[in-house]
Amino acid sequence: MYTADVWTRLLGFLWRENDIAGKRVRRTAVIGTVEQYPTKDLAQAAVNGLRMCINEDRNRQREQRIPVADLVDHYIQTELAEEADWHSHATRIVYREFLKRGIRPRWADLDIRDVRTVVVERWLRQMHRVDGAPLANATRAKIRSLMSVLFNHAIRYEWLGERIPLRLSARARSAKTFRRCWSRLRFRVFCCN
């Protein structure tokens, strides 16, 4: 149980939902402390992932708008949480930075169903580092892969149909073709020698 001074520093989220009998029930969840989330924006971002879980059934409806910002917040809360052990610590840090610095600022207000492949490719080509130099191709490829992972997350939670904006990317197709040709070449080299 928390003491009185701890209760004043905790940030909570309050919502109501229907229980099995159809009766309205008040629910609360502790998000964190004022020290963890000193600004309203940080607290709102922390709550977005929880809100997406609460509204999970509603998000499956086609007419329900789901901003990319909410998808990013849910992905961070579920897939990049410290309890989630399927990503290494370094991967979680890099993914969070890519999401926070690159993907979220550009795509936050757009509905996940409105993201288009050509627009994402154009955005990736125009990305630059803080010092103004263009991003390395490997970094662009990682960001593109993370966007694909993000939309796979939306499909897994049934918020999006089968169309992933980056699955149709020309660069992704050419990389697969290159790998297929390379493995045939390696096979010939090993068989002939």
Task: Give a structural overview.
- This protein has 193 residues and is mainly α.
- The chain folds into two domains: 1-37, no CATH class; 39-173, DNA polymerase, domain 1 (Orthogonal Bundle).
- It is 56% helix and 10% strand.
- It is built from eight helices and two strands.
- A two-stranded antiparallel ribbon has the order 1-2.
- It is globular.
- The chain starts with a helix and ends with a helix.
As laid out across the biggest beta sheet, the strand order is 1-2
The CATH first-level class of the largest domain comes to Mainly Alpha
Low-confidence stretches: 172-182
> What is the terminal-to-terminal distance?
72 Å
SSE succession = HEEHHHHHHH
Secondary structure: elements and pairs:
Elements: H1 4-9, E1 10-18, E2 24-33, H2 40-54, H3 56-59, H4 68-78, H5 89-107, H6 117-126, H7 137-156, H8 170-192
Antiparallel strand pairs: 1-2
In short:
The chain has about 190 residues and is mainly alpha-helical. It has helices spanning about 5-10, 40-55, 55-60, 70-80, 90-105, 115-125, 135-155, 170-190, and strands at about 10-20, 25-35.
Features:
193 residues, mainly alpha, DNA polymerase, domain 1, 2 domains, 8 helices
